Amino acid sequence: MIQLDHITKRYDGGSVAVDDLSLDIDAGELVVFVGPSGCGKTTTMKMVNRLIDPTSGRILVNGEDVTTKDPVAVRRGIGYVIQQVGLFPHQSIADNVATVPRLLGWDRTRIRNRTNELLELVGLPPGEYAHRYPHQLSGGQRQRVGVARALGADPPVLLMDEPFGAIDPVTRDRLQQEFLRLQAELRKTVIFVTHDIEEAVLLGDRIAVLREGGVLEQYDAPADVLGRPATPFVASFVGADRGLKRLSVTAIDVADLEHPGVIHLNEPLADARLALAQSGADWAIVLDDNEGLHGYVGGAALAGDGIVASRAKRLPAWVPADSTLKRAFAEMLAHDAGWVAVLDGDRYVGVLTPESLHAALRRSVANAAPE
User: Fold this and answer.
1) Helix/strand/coil percentages in the chain, nearest 5
2) Strand pairing of 206-211 and 215-220?
3) pLDDT 10s digits, 102-129
């Protein structure tokens, strides 16, 4: 757990970088500091590992005030990942990852085992990557090594300063998803700094919105920051399209799904035509004998003799039931589809259309609106 207790940072000349900031971060929680340039988010993070000392206030990590401890000892117990990675260019990837365990005096076998474990964890098999050098890796791979190095001694706290900011959009998205997977597995206490509200919404358990001068404007769950901005500054910062951004944090609700007619692969076409006529629909979902999704079929394709399997089309647009509305919407756009199927494992549970997606989003925004 991290507690910031009335932290202030003033520089010579009287300028204030952080102004009387207090907030608590629970163990295992990922909190994102977000705001414009000059709002003190990086300064605050650097005060946690004593790269910068506060002018006043206390910083407690697991109950101990780090402002009273040896700064070097504090830093060795806190993982730190920065935007430009900062790998040592003349050391191998394995030696880079082993930096903190080596400083802590671990024996060679323990260091080697930990290094191999971490490289596997971040998706860089040690047999292929351990003996390479930073210049032999892509930007995304170097960033993975930076995360592995920060986790070297298994620190309880991880600080991340815009770690994906210098990566191309495709690689950035992949790294964000990979980091979410790692965090779900490791449950570190994380402070993550970004200027990008969409990244904050995607990654954060809670978001701290700061304005110029290091003033905390709102500290809330992503859905609340988007749905009920606490101040005009927050409303302006998250943008007029904050309703759309809520797609990223609004889960699919089974109650929002539509249920078109269902027919099965081995049904005779005559039976399928009758079922479609009775439903008054122009198309139907096609399931296999195990109630798994096969695809769909339109009424015009059901003429003649035979079975449904000879006319059904495969359906590329589908999402798991635990997806967000944003992912469902993205699938619709990617496949130019009028709807997307929703699956619970292999089991088909319904479809989401643009109309039902819009209704779900409106309900989400209405539920977040202040009374």
Assistant:
1) 40, 25, 35
2) antiparallel
3) 988 999 999 999 999 999 988 899 999 9
Measure the CA–CA gap between 62 and 85, rounded to whole angstroms.
27
Q: Domain residue spans in the chain? A: 2-249, 254-365
Pick the CATH number of 2-249 from 3.40.50.620, 3.40.50.300, 3.30.160.100, 3.30.70.20: 3.40.50.300
H/E segment holding residue 194 = strand 189-194
- Contact 49/78 with Cβ under 8 angstroms? yes
For residue 333, give every residue at least 6 positions away whose Cβ sits within 8 Å of its Cβ, in sequence order, or none: none
**CB within 8 Å of 126: residues ≥ 6 apart:** 94, 115, 116, 119, 120
Q: Is the CATH number of domain 254-365 3.90.220.20?
A: no
The DSSP secondary-structure symbol of 305 reads S
- Across the range 45-62, mean pLDDT stands at 93
pLDDT in tens, 302-325: 888 889 888 888 878 888 888 888
pLDDT in tens, 247-269: 777 888 888 888 888 888 888 88
